[in-house]
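User: Could you write out the 3D structure of this protein bound to iron/sulfur cluster? I've included everything you need below.
Assistant: Certainly. Input first, then the structure.
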Amino acid sequence: MQWMGGEPLLRPDVLREGAKLFTRNTVTTNGTLDPIELPNCTYVFSIDGPPELNDAIRGKGTFKRVMDTISKIPEKFASTVMCQCVVTKRNEDSLEELVQILRPTRAEGMTFSFYVPQREDRSDLTWSSLIRRDRAVQTVMRLKEKYPDFIWSNRRSLELMLSENAKTVTDNCPSKRLILPLYLQGSEFVNPYCCYGNDVDCDLCGAWVVFWLAAKLEDGSLWSYPTSR
Ligand code: SF4
């Protein structure tokens, strides 16, 4: 189960009860609240660049708050602590700087996901074509070579994200086939088109989960994870 928000830590009561139902739990957090102990859990702290860039994307003062939260996590905290950066056209030239900031922290590793635009997205976050995105993917591939233990993005999943391969993956999206997105609206669950919403541009999707699943399906290792108690 992947718990996402909003901010899942705003509802520790739901997390505590819900996490008991699943073999593995991942909580994606904006890092402004202290994490709580949950069974078999990985915490993913969202951080999108060095201070100025991160705060331009995620809000003033966010970088410091995330770093403060990570630094306060006790050594014996049982959950895995990692970070995830959403790579965009705006932060693509600052990725190594971010890696160097995060390596000495309590974070055990990090992954890179790539921006998933909406269909009419004209912001400065999107590359607007897969070919234009390639330079950023190649940067992450180079960082993976340089910091193999800290960067947990899977090498093959990055190859699949290159323009020559990406559409083959997204045209038959493994996330759409294998992941059930549930969105809690009041007390009702609604079922969006995919984990990234309803009006998404699949042709430019760079969600790590899509390409991670594709790589796992390709090498046959996906189902080696425990899937039931
Ligand atoms: S936008 Fe959603 S459905 Fe489309 S490729 Fe990405 S994860 Fe799959």
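The radius of gyration is 17 Å.
User: Perfect, thank you.
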